Fold this sequence. Notes:
By secondary structure, the protein is α/β, with parallel strands linked by helices. It is 35% helix and 22% strand.
Amino acid sequence: MDRQKVLLALQARGYEAVAFQTGREAAAYLDEKVNGRLVGFGDSETLISIGLYALLARHNDVYDPQHPRDGMDFFSTAKKCLLTDIFFTSVNGMAETGEMVNIDGTGNRIAGSLFGHEKVYFVVGSNKIAPTLDEAVWRARNEAAPLNAARHHYKTPCAVRQDHCYDCRSPQRICNAQTIYWRKMNHMAMEVILIEEPLGF
């Protein structure tokens, strides 16, 4: 990853953008920035891997589908996340030219990243970055989606074989919608946190 090139490309598209060498450094930065807020998480292996939930939950009101509260399931938690001040998620692919790509099966990650919050943070490991938008789209569909389906123990062809997308009709299919973020959304702050180590899918 050409760190400076990617940061400049993201900033040219309207995002705040910073980079860190490790997930630990990025998590400490976010822990300092977000305090006393209502926070929602997208279902993100990247966020899990840097331990962000435990850090922020000490001094914020945090909702995360991976950590449902008593009396709440995945869906009720995910809905609550759409109504928070701050929303955290990742992406499945990012081009060095600044476009980002997400694929979603249920829609909570994509929905939470597009509207309604004061600020959205995208936390992105170096493994997500590809030279071009076409390659970022290919990565999201043929690398990230199979690994994510396998993580959930789904029986889609891509999860069983873990090789590429089969454009299947499985009821457990997770690539039902794809979003390309051409630029920062209007009327909402968005910050991209680049981490120079592989994280998530």
